Amino acid sequence: MRRMTPLDAAWLTVDSRDTPMHVATLAILSKPKNASPTYLQDLVKEFQGARSFVPPWNLRIRQSPLKNVLPVVEEIHDIDMEYHVRHSALPHPGGERELGVLVSRLHAHQLDLSRPLWECHIIEGLENDRFALYTKMHHALIDGVAGVRIMQQSFSENPRERGMVPPWSKRAATQARRERVLEDAAFSPTGWAQHALASTRSKARSVAGLGKTLAHLVGASGNRENALTSPYDSPKSVLNKRVSPPRRFGTQQYDLDRLKKICKAADVSLNDVVLCICGAALRRFLLESNALPDKPLTAGIPVSVRPAGDVQVGTAISFILSTLGTDIADPVLRLKAIHASTDKAKQELQALTRKQIDAYTLMVMGPFIGSLVTGLGGRTRPVFNLTISNVPGPQKPLYFNGARMEGIFPVSLVAHGQALNITCLSYAGKLNFGFTAARDTLPHMQRLSVYTGEALDELEAILVPSGKSRSTSSTKRKAAAS
């Protein structure tokens, strides 16, 4: 058993019917050559027949002596696999729209907190003889980087490899040694108090070193000449209202080479280009609704602080904040403003120690989590307007027992005051965008996914004039729920 960190526990605390706190991936696979007619039924039986489990797939929440205060997770080995592994089929014609409708519906439902916090849905009926795996897990147990690493270790680069087991039965090489079991005394009232006191002292020492960074953040608020974006300096917008359970999901896929050429031409990072085309799409989307704020929208950008190879349970992220330049019509000037903002934010974060980063993350995210707990989320000024994340993934094609993964798309979470999330995941020379939104708050969200492609065309035409617009030749995928 292990005790959850305060940030991980917070994701459990705010989990509700309106705001389920799980993240997911949608993997599109093509069946191996000469697959039998019962290939998918056999795959379901194999997945459901697993009897050997590894963390985080076999972890269940066990409450601490004080309810909802630093709960612990315990390993169990009696898991109802027919509940956790489910078989679905798409209606004809099995296109991206039908898939998007199903994924949106599956993503809207809470996980059962009395069971291990995950589900896997095997989805057949996708056109061109393909199938999909939609797998979701609670954010208290996993973040995007760890999720991608688990996925990589569960698949193979060898299309001929067979005898592979499901991810919940495969122990990563970096986890060959089991996590140390805490003594039962740690879960007594005395043990809990000692743990909490030690944690508080450690955080207090870290907070003492944050003065300079916090002063910079406060000084940046309202200062249009300062590139640093500060919390709560974001305008109110339609993105920051209350949400209800229904979800909408959309995807786009672009060649990484296209974005990298823009990066080179403008001397900016890939994240800067992603933020720029998202900013352009949001500007157009809100202008069409006559809802564009005068101040630029801001993005919270998760930054992994997870060591290489680490797939331990829990989240290991911090945040930087950036402008999205939605007040700037010129795409090149918008890109420059975003680059200045992210560059300054990264400098501030890199100046902190790991403990100071943990304390800083709690200071930035604490009020956001608190607003969800108290019911103020979506009723007060947002910390930032939306989350935009870019997770590096495998750059070689992956296979599972001969089935080739054609693409993988992230499906993230939304909350009161955060009705939209845009997450990107690179894979095999492509950058895959997943747009997750609260359907009732943003009923036409699928337009955003289309607008990012047109914004990319525009930026490319200006900065890489030798490369013609790819609006018709680039690979694009859309999956939108009605």
Automatic annotation (TrEMBL):
Residues 225-244 are annotated as: Disordered. It holds the Pfam family WS_DGAT_cat. GO terms for molecular function: diacylglycerol O-acyltransferase activity. Signal peptide: none annotated. Its EC number is 2.3.1.20. Pathway: Glycerolipid metabolism; triacylglycerol biosynthesis; Lipid metabolism. It catalyses: an acyl-CoA + a 1,2-diacyl-sn-glycerol = a triacyl-sn-glycerol + CoA. GO terms for cellular component: plasma membrane. SUPFAM superfamilies: CoA-dependent acyltransferases. Residues 314-459 form the O-acyltransferase WSD1 C-terminal domain. One of its GO terms (biological process) is triglyceride biosynthetic process. Residues 4-274 form the O-acyltransferase WSD1-like N-terminal domain. Keywords: Acyltransferase, Glycerol metabolism, Lipid biosynthesis, Lipid metabolism, Transferase. NCBIfam families: acyl_WS_DGAT. PANTHER family: O-ACYLTRANSFERASE (WSD1-LIKE) FAMILY PROTEIN, WAX ESTER SYNTHASE_DIACYLGLYCEROL ACYLTRANSFERASE 4-RELATED. Belongs to the long-chain O-acyltransferase family. This is diacylglycerol O-acyltransferase.
